[in-house]
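Backbone-to-sequence.
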């Protein structure tokens, strides 16, 4: 039996945290003894941790203040595998690698296109240097998409042998159950667009509002689900674009799947992604998608004319035109759902289990 320690800063509602929670809930207990190490035990996903998982809370609020506690906690647990996710945490874990025996295997699950994400940092060149120098310490790096794989190889000189592409899973059965609701979230006389995500610069909701303002049809309505620091700026932008009457800011929603199932079209205008889970989840709800061709998995997920459409990155006019076409040309719901079976949770879970056994 292998002892696997998953390491995260906290358990907020991000994609990385959700995937780790799914893994620790479903990994075979006969093969793996699982521990969860957190800088701070907080976040909406804390309630999702099963009782049989030992959770270590370092009670720290920053990576910098947690270095020694993290090191000694990992030493005490004596793991066979240390599994970290989220870029900043990965950097810290990789820097500790030389202090551990080669017997202990270090795995990072990367969550972003690092070369693009680093441009948003205060010192981008420093972050680039850190990734180029210490990321090679990992025994294995899991990339969520081909774009992410290429980014690590071309821009950070990571050996191809150290990278494995594992797409994010979608629990179709679970989503089906959670998506059933008798509540009517939308006016069915309208054509309803839905976007879900944190209201941050990366997610590009400002670009969505700008493109939506070009949709010349008063019967097409947009709902944005999520919270974040850009909320007030986005509401102001909607007002300036004179579309505030056709845009609803829904706020945080613990279970967005009923909205995904009831929406007519799911839209995504992110500036970049790692692997956009929300696209796959919307497809699992049999809802077609429309997305900018941003880097990070969109081209792998969206099959034009089958489960949705892609338009050129940042092309607002093309996006608006496609919304109008989608409103008049529904796609086959069975084909939409069929397109995500390749990401079905049990298939991806088996890949993770085989990876943890064989690393």
């Amino acid at each position: 039996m292998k002892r696997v320690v998953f390491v995260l800063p906290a358990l907020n509602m991000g994609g990385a945290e959700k995937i780790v929670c799914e893994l620790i809930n479903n990994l075979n207990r006969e093969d793996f003894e699982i521990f969860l190490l957190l800088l701070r035990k907080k976040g909406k996903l804390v309630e999702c941790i099963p009782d049989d998982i030992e959770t270590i809370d370092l009670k720290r609020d920053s990576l910098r203040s947690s270095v020694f506690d993290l090191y000694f906690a990992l030493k005490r647990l004596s793991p066979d595998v240390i599994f970290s996710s989220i870029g900043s945490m990965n950097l810290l874990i990789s820097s500790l690698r030389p202090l551990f025996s080669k017997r202990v295997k270090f795995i990072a699950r990367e969550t972003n296109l690092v070369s693009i994400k680093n441009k948003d940092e205060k010192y981008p060149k420093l972050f680039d240097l850190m990734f180029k120098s210490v990321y090679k310490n990992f025994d294995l790096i899991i990339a969520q998409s081909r774009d992410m794989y290429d980014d690590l190889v071309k821009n950070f000189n990571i050996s191809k042998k150290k990278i494995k592409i594992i797409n994010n899973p979608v629990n179709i059965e679970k989503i089906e159950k959670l998506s059933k609701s008798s509540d009517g979230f939308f006016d069915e006389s309208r054509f309803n667009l839905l976007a879900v995500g944190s209201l941050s610069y990366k997610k590009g909701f400002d670009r969505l509002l700008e493109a939506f303002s070009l949709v010349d049809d008063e019967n097409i309505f947009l709902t944005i689900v999520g919270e974040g620091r850009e909320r007030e700026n986005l509401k102001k932008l909607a007002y300036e674009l004179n579309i505030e009457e056709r845009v609803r800011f829904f706020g945080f929603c613990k279970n967005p799947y009923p909205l995904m199932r009831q929406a007519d079209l799911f839209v995504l205008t992110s500036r970049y992604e790692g692997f956009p889970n929300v696209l796959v989840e919307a497809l699992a709800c049999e809802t077609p998608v429309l997305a900018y061709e941003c880097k990070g998995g969109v081209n792998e997920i969206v099959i034009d004319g089958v489960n949705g459409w892609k338009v050129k990155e940042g092309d607002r006019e093309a996006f608006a035109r496609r919304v109008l076409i989608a409103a008049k040309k529904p796609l086959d719901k069975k084909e939409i759902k069929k397109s995500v079976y390749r990401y079905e949770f049990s298939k991806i879970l088996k890949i993770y289990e085989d990876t943890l056994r064989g690393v």
